[in-house]
Amino acid sequence: MTTLIPTFALLGASRSFSGVMALDHVDIEIYPGEVHCLLGDNGAGKSTLIKLLSGVHSLTGGSMHFDGEPVTLKSPRDAQALGIATVHQDTSAIPMMSVARNFFLGVEPTRGWGPFIRYDTALAGRVALEQLRTMGITRVQNPDQLVGTLSGGERQALAIARASYFGAKVLILDEPTSALGVKEATVVLRQIQRARSDGIAVVFITHNATHAIAVGDRFTVLIQGHVAAQFLKGEKNRNEILDLMAGGEESLDIFDRDDR
Amino acid sequence: MKTTTAGAGIVRPLSTRWSSLARRPAFGSLLVTIAIFGFFALNAGDSGFLTSSGTAGWLNTAAELGIVAVPIALLMISGEFDLSIGSVVGASGILVAISTSQFGVPFEISIVMALILGLVTGLANGVLVIRTGMPSFIVTLATSFILLGIALGMSRLIASTSTVSLRVEGPTRELLAGKMGDFNASILWWVAISVLAIWVLARTPFGSWIYATGGNLDAARRAGVPTSRVKLILFCTTGVAASLLGVITAAQVNSGNAVSGQGFVFQAPIVAVIGGILLTGGYGSVIGVCFGAAIYGIVSIGLFYTGWNTDWAPTFIGALLVLAVLGNNMIRRFALSEKRAVPTMPKVGGRA
Question: Looking at this predicted complex, what is its ipTM?
Answer without folding.
Answer: 0.79
